[in-house]
Amino acid sequence: MQTAKRHKLRARLWLCFIFCSLSGAHYFFYRFSIHPLNPYGMTRGLTFGLVLWTTVLTVAMWLRHGWARYVAGTLMVIAIFGFGFTLLALDRQSVHRIPDAMQEVIGGLVLYTIALIPLVGSSSLRLFLAPRSAGH
User: Fold this and answer.
1) Is 96 exposed, middle or buried (0-12, 13-18, 19+ CB in 10 A)?
2) Distance between CA atoms of residues 116 and 20, nearest Å
3) Residue-wise burial string across 104-116, b where 16 or more C-beta atoms lie within 10 A, e elsewhere
4) How far apart are CA 47 and CA 43, in angstroms?
5) Is 38 strand, coil or helix?
6) N or C of the chain: less Cβ packing under 10 Å?
7) Tens of pLDDT, residues 78-125
8) Is 38 left (phi over 0), alpha (psi -120 to 50) or beta?
9) Closest CA to 61 of 19, 20, 26, 111
């Protein structure tokens, strides 16, 4: 019984950590999307969509919906690739180097990767989101 409570507490702490990491990444992505030298207007919409759906999926995981973990992981990987390709395209397209805008994207990508690690690897989170048996 005590172990189950410990796993539940640890999983909730991981969810808080993931939410905070994603919030920081969204801040960096938003800063990049409104940067005056950013030629890609779609990054603002992508950032808004990520804020909306990662929040919805984090709340779904908090409410113990196991499917949300898989959808959130997939969404985060797609976002990493999307912003990564945007960063590469910006670097190849720009005549002048834009280090501050690139650092914002890199900061967001690092925070997304940091949030993805416990989402995929935490055994406490995996047990928390596993299907409940009749005894729970």
Assistant:
1) exposed
2) 12
3) bbbbbbebbeebb
4) 6
5) coil
6) N
7) 999 998 888 888 767 655 666 777 888 899 999 999 999 999 998 889
8) beta
9) 19
| pTM passes above 0.90 | no
Residues 6+ apart with CB under 8 A from 84: 109
Run of H or E including 106: helix 99-121
Q: What is the radius of gyration, based on Cα positions, of the chain? A: 17
Distance CA 45, CA 8 (A): 35
d(CA 111, CA 124): 21
Q: Hey, what are 78's tokens?
A: 């797609």
63 CB-near residues (< 8 Å, 6+ apart): none
CA distance 127 to 88: 38
Tokens 């690739």 -> residue = 81
Q: Render pLDDT for 62-87 as a digit per residue (tens, 0 to 9).
A: 999 989 999 999 999 999 999 888 88
Residue 36 is classified by DSSP as T
Chain-centroid distance of CA 2 in Å reads 31
